[in-house]
Amino acid sequence: MAKILLTGGAGYIGSHTYLALVEAGFEVVILDNFSNAKSDVPNRLQDIAGKMVDVFQGDVLNHADLDDVFAAHKIDGVVHFAAKKAVGESVAKPLDYMHNNIGGLLNLLAAMDAADVRRIVFSSSATVYGDTIIQPIPEDNARTYTSPYASTKIAGEQILEQLPDTWAVGILRYFNPVGAHKSAMIGEDPEDIPNNLVPYIAKVATGELAELSVFGDDYDTPDGTGVRDYIHVEDLADGHVLSLKSLLETGKSHTVNLGTGEGSSVLDVLAAYSEACGQDLAHTIAPRRDGDVAVLTARPEQAKAQLGFEAKRSLADMCKSSWEWVSGQRRNTH
Ligand code: WQD
Prior knowledge:
This protein has helices at residues 12-23, 41-49, 63-72, 87-92, 94-114, 148-161, 197-205, 233-250, 266-277, 301-307, 315-327; strands at residues 3-7, 27-32, 54-57, 77-80, 119-125, 168-174, 176-178, 212-215, 227-228, 230-232, 254-258, 264-265, 283-286, 295-296.
């Protein structure tokens, strides 16, 4: 049974990918510094998976931590999530983002090389496409950064693309991951006021926040509000399993979008969430947010052609699973 190192595996996408990998028959070791993950996530993963969770509290910035993990485990492949991912924060702290996201990747690659481990799935983002007029976006679209966060993802991709053929690399460009695990025991759990749309709406639904500010209704879109390609986090996790299997079986690299190819506006999401939680959700039209683009949707064909990946879950599924997680409806019935 192949053993996989999941850096940042206690985080939002990492924890869902952990469950998908275990379900697919992999052995998994989580490496996380818990800077953006609750300390009880591994316990909840243990309850859901019904087996011990192997967690190493450490940091990809710490060479000794990486050496210890590779010395303690015979790792066959790595899924690398551990990075900072807040666009706004990256504008305020660019060097912090370069150090963490690029420095951390370089440390990890050096430790992998020393341990003869050369299969890696890299968590990238649609943000590498910048503000492009071509929609839906194909993978061969030019890359350009609109924030330091985006520049660290482009840099990461460029580092990985230059590794020799002895390496097999899966670069996965996420569009907008939302939703929660069907158990409602793990989900998106932002510390303070969320920047992203769905976790913000979720807090309006629970009453923690008063109303949603819709950032602009004067875009060139059907209802004037921003359109994005939302993908269920469980579909995203399944995409990582297929990417890893492809690397281990073929030794060939790939770069694919993970999205549905469908666009949903802010008002579409608001209506879907209102349906999921059974209540009207207060909102107001506010000015556009700096840096936002009108439309961002994925060409999903390459993930299907190269990995056999296809997103299955709908926007309604995403909102329902998010609502069950934030409302704790099902958490105690697992
Ligand atoms: C979605 C839509 C907003 C909040 C970001 C990062 C990207 C990736 C995913 C890491 C937009 C609107 C939002 C609100 C609103 N992260 N909105 N009111 O900006 O598409 O992508 O998260 O890889 O890098 O940029 O996601 O959820 O912030 O916004 O009207 O309170 O919702 O204008 O149209 P975004 P988002």
